[in-house]
Amino acid sequence: MSHAKRVAVTVPAGPKLEHTLARLKWAEDNGVPDAWFSDSGAPDTLTQIAALAHHTTKLRIGVAVTPVYTRSPSVLAASANVISQLLPGRFIMGLGSSSQTIMGQWNGIPLDKPLTRVKETTQLVRLMLTGAKTEFSGTTVRSHGYRQAPAENPPPIYVGCLRPNMIEMAAEVGDGVIFNLWPKSALPKMIEHVKIGAARAGKDWQQVEVVNRAMVLVTDDKEYGRNLFRAAFAPYYATPVYNSFLAWAGHEEAAATIREGWAAKDRNKTAGALSDALIDEIGIIGSADEVRERIREDAAGGVHTSIIAPLAGKPEDLQRTFDAFAGKNFRF
């Protein structure tokens, strides 16, 4: 049986715990079943989940995604064990490689062998959660003689992925896959690689949950929304991992222009490579009815859980966007 179709709010809601708590409470009170945290820096995501878990009663809470380079497998497994006690059956650990900017520039950590590092970390964390004594010699991570108390409710582990090899690995070793910032024309071939990876592990691909972080804005001014998207995500597509993904997704010319503009420190050229048509393929901008229909289209194409991540704008824009997906306003 395939996974149910769901929507989620994105968190954190800012640097203060009180604001994130308010969003979690809003989601529970308004029939939104999930909340998914990003994890790129401060405020620390796993600490926030542990701090706020007891304020929730129904929400499924996931992480999309914790970088595998900034915490060792034993620390990840120890954190997951604690959080799974606080949220039994309601926590999903998301792991991924992150990007060159976040790892290399922010943290001074080389983004070496990302596919292997994510795969081996996922395997090792899952082993540690069973309470088994480790005897693991990977290419990128190793552990010998470590043991922690087994998790009574070990959380599923989902893996962030973009291009074919990473998608296939994520579907092979993960319980779910996490997508981000894809043009809608790329979704069919991304799902095909989910199928390939699941088959490699002898799994029914429909049991692999597909989670997507959707960049959404309910607005009457699409040009305003597109400009917000350009400002926020042109730098993303300048990083090697996202630039290569954009080219693979069929937008080689835009990817090349972004690379050239970024190298020349030409912000107008970099942002201008994201045409209105391309933004409309990636972002979800428009009336409440328009954005709801696009989320339904994504669900029909294979996405199980859509994280509603409002484009940065005015507070009223953010709330209007979330309101469009309150339980009373939205059904698949």
CATH level 1 class label of the largest domain? Alpha Beta
CATH topology type of the largest domain:
TIM Barrel
**What percentage of the residues does DSSP assign to strands (E)?**
15-25%
Mean pLDDT over the full residue set: 94
Give me the secondary-structure category.
alpha/beta
Strand order across the biggest sheet? Answer: 1-2-3-5-8-9-10-12
**What percent of residues adopt helix (DSSP H or I)?**
40-55%
Q: Specify the overall morphology.
A: globular
- Radius of gyration, taken over Cα atoms and rounded to an integer in Å: 19 Å
Count every beta strand, where a strand is a DSSP E run of 2 or more residues.
12
Number of domains: 2
N- to C-terminal distance: 17 Å
User: Low-confidence runs (pLDDT<50, min 5 residues)?
Assistant: none
